Structures are given as C-alpha cells and as structure tokens.
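Students often ask why we bother predicting the structure of a whole assembly rather than each chain alone. The short answer is interfaces. A chain on its own may look different once its partners are present, and contacts between molecules only exist in the joint model. In this exercise we take two input lines together and write out one structure for the complete complex. Read the inputs first and try to guess which parts will touch.
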Amino acid sequence: MKPLVMENIIKTRGSGRHAVEVLHGISLELDAGEFVILKGPSGSGKTTLLAVGGGILTPESGIVHIGGYRLHEGSRAADRKHRGAAIGFVFQRSNLLPHLTVRENVLLMGRIAGRAARETLRDADDLLERLGLGNLGRRYPRELSGGEEQRAAVARALVHRPAVILADEPTGNLDGRSGQAVAESLAGLARQRGTAVIVATHDPRLEPFASRTVRIEDGRILS
Amino acid sequence: MLVLLLKSLRGRLLRTVLAIAGIAACTLLVIVISSVLRGVSTSMAGYIGQEGFDVWVTPPGADNLIRGSFVSFIPLAYIDSLRAVPGVVAANPVLEAFLPVSFPGGIDPGLRLTSITVGYLLPHGLGGPPAFSEGRAPRRRDEVAIDRAAARRLAARVGDTIDVSGYPEVIAGITTGTNLLVTQFLFVGYDAMARGSNSGGLASFVILRTSPGEGRDSVAAAVERKFPHLHAYTRERFLATNEREVSSGYVPVLVLIAVLGAGAAMLLVGLLILSVIDERRGDIAVLLALGTGAPTLSRGTLAHTAALSAGGACIGIALAYALALALDAWLPAVPMVIRPAEVAAIAALFTATGMAAAIAPVIRLAAIDPLEAFRS
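Now the answer. The structure tokens for the assembled complex follow.
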C-alpha cells in the first residue's frame, strides 16, 4: 500500500472571475521510505500540492489516497482523523506552539493523531533524545536556537508514526550547519521508520538524501 | 484546546485578571441591586407579617403602607364595630405618616431624616415593631423605637432625645428588619402620632387579630360586607400589594442594570478571547493543519469562556457576601438580603452570557485558513 497517491489533481484558488487554476491534473505517488524532493520556482504550485496531499485543501477534481484511505469521500471528521494519524508536517518555521514546552509540543501531535499516551510518551522521549534535544524537553520554543526548534518540529512530525511527512522548505530559515543537521535528522529518522517524505525545497543540502526529485512548474510536473 | 488556551492566557495574565475582575464587578453589581430589593421586601414582610397582624383594614385607595399616609383615613369610631365582626379578637388603629426626624443633641443637628412613622396603641397594641437589637418597645407617650439604620445615621442611641416633627421623643429601643432603604420605620404611641400629624380621631389602617382557627379570608370578607367603603386584606394579600408597590419602582431599574451588567461582562470576555484568537491566529492555523478539528477548537473556546465567566461570577458572589456582612456592620442603611437561588440564577446568567460572548471569537476561529501555517 502506497503511503500517498495523488491522481489527476486539479486545484483552483480564488473564486469567480478571480479563480486561477494552480494545479493542472497532477499525479504523484510515494513509496514507503521514499524521500522525494519537490523542486520548482516560487508560485509553481509546490505548497498547494503539499496542502492537497495533506488533506488541507480539497481539489476540484482528482483523487487523494493517504495510506490507502481515500480523502474527500467520507465525512470531514473521518478525513481529519485519518490525515491527523497518517501525516506529519514540517513547515518552513518550526511553528511550535509558544506556550507549550518542546516536549508538550511533541506530545500534542500524539493526542491529535489519537495515539495512546504511553506510546506517544515513549516515542517522544526517544525522538528528542535522538535529535539531540533530550535535555531541552522542558524548555519553551523561545529558549531554543532556530536549528533546535526545527529539530523539535521534526520530532513532532514523526512522533505519531505517520505514513508520510510533508515538509515545506524545512531548512529555508536555517544556517548551513543547522540546515544540514535538520536535513540529516529528517531523512535518517524517516528512513529508519519507513516513512515516506516529500519536501518542497530549493535547498541543495537536501539533494543528497533524495531518492527522487520531482520538478514542478506552472502547476504541472515536468519530470 | 482548553489547556492550550489556559496556557495562552497565562501569558496575558494582566488582561485575564482584569477581564475576570470586570465580570466579578458586574456580577457584584447585579447581586447588590437584587439583594437590596430583597432586603426591602424582607423588611416589609417582617413588619406586615407579624404574628397577630391577621387582617389589614384600609380606607379606599390605600392598599399599601406608602399610600396609607396620603390618601384617606378610617374614623376611630369604626373600631368597636370592627371588633364586633365575628372572628375578630382585637382591632387596633394605626396612624402612619412620613415625618421629619432629627437629633438636635447629636453630632449633626442639621441632619433631618424622613421616617415612615407608625403610631400604635402603647404598650402592646398591634402595629408595633417586629424586633429589637437594643432596648425595648415604647411604653410612654414621649418614647419611640427607631430603626437601627436611622439611629446609625443620626448617631443616636437608646436614651437619647430626638425630635420627631417638632416634638422631643426619647429613644426606648432600636429596631431591626425595619429598613426600607429610602426610608426607615419609627414607632411612637398613637397619641403622640395623632398630635404630631394633626390626625386625632383617625387611623390610617386598622389591624385585626383573628381568633385561632378563624380563617383570615372569611374575616376579611365579613369586614368588606359590613363596611362596603373599606377594604380588608389578609396579611398575605396586604404584603403582596406592598411588594408590588416596591417592585414597581425597583424592578425596571434592576432589570436594566442586570442587562447592562451582563452586557458589559459579555463584552469583556468576548474582547479577551477575540484578542487571544487574533494574536494566536498562526498557532491555530498550525493546529488546524496538523489535524485538530475546528469543532474541537470551538468547543475549547466555549468551555474556556464559560470557565472565565463562571470564575468571575464566583468571585463576584463571594464579594457580595463579604459586602453584605460589611454593610450590616458598618452601613446598615443599605439592607442586603442574599438568596442562594437568586445568586445561582445570576451566576448562570453570567456564565451563559460568557458563552454567548464566545460566538464572535468562534466565528473568527472558523474562518482561519490552515494554509496560513505554510505562509509564515
């Protein structure tokens, strides 16, 4: 079963006279453990594709399967429940909730995904340790460096053992060493867990980890 | 979500504390108004509902104590005939008028109060005070019993000589349960009252005591049959007409203030939650993107605003009880009687308005696009 399948996705943004089609019949499949880089100029539709793949946006037409579950066919609540459990997100900024500690941020994702608290606790502590954040779990995001924050975001994306991680410029705001550390963490842990990863990025530091690169331009996949 | 909001509000402690304090103040305001009205009613009931005050006979148009002073009188010549009505054990005249009272030997000789002055037959006639905090009932023509709040305002004590409508009277007792907020009861002998109000030979009301086992309704009906131009009210009906008189003045104001108070509390809570949602818009977008449902966030927001409102209301209730104790000790002119059922209703009102205040924030929340999580 493929972790993510998108078939003939057409997505329009805006409405009425201002409606613009931004994805023109895109199809994309990810295999388990695959690390796919999505490249393309700004405005090419990378983020929109990620949002459709993550179930945040509903396409005008086309089919999205996440871990064998077809989105937009059942109820919204069922879709939300499934995508919460099957998808992990890493954003350009860490987007950790500022009033929660690092550990609480990671544990929160387990709750959203509906995982058992004990398993989530065990995985959260393990991931924080492996990401070099074992002693920073009680700190708040403002007390961390940019690289540490983003590694905590990687822990949050992995803690519920999702089928696929969708990452949007995860190293875009980081300096060389921090970006390298985040890229290695994301790729290494995902591979170990058999999690598929699709990363929208311009960052060449991520290319060595890619099993495949997909180029997108004007809402169409070029290669 | 509730934990998230609470943690979020912890970062806005001052604003949260101010909002809760505002709700508490609004709650306190409504409870004070309500309990003051209740205090007046309780005093009214405490006086009118005394043991033995079974039937109140009134002249035309005087169906309560307030109107009794102005409208018309019953000649004392009727007393014997009223006593002769079957079932009546005693018939005592009461003269009532609003009279000026001052304490020439006191701290403020120029202070003049207007007391609802009741003249009754000394020493044990019907119409006397219900209870004393000090002293005793008047026994002589030159003695009075004065309400505790009025005595406090005049700085007068038992044994002091006060001026009642130009006549010196010695305070024999201090009464309780006789404070109507805007005026207080003063009790004098019938003769002194007749002299002070130029109403000799007249009665504002006649109070009848009925024999044990005799129905008050049947006695009242018999009086009205015998004296078609008079009215006779059982104790309960007379109390009801008095409460209606009081309520007609207070209740519209009470309702207005309650509505304004609840509205102010609603705005405070609404603004607080709205500002939190606006400021945490990015975090909410992230939560939505990660898979938290908007209904979950909305429920959390509602629960949170309800908790804030209920917390403020509880503080307001506690303050109201404390204020009632303080007023009773230091400012008895403002009578507060707090009824738990009314307090519970007010707390429910404020909690409900708090939840209503969450509607605008919830609408705002529902409009947040999870895609904002990608745009930061």
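Check your guess against this: The mean pLDDT of chain B is 88.
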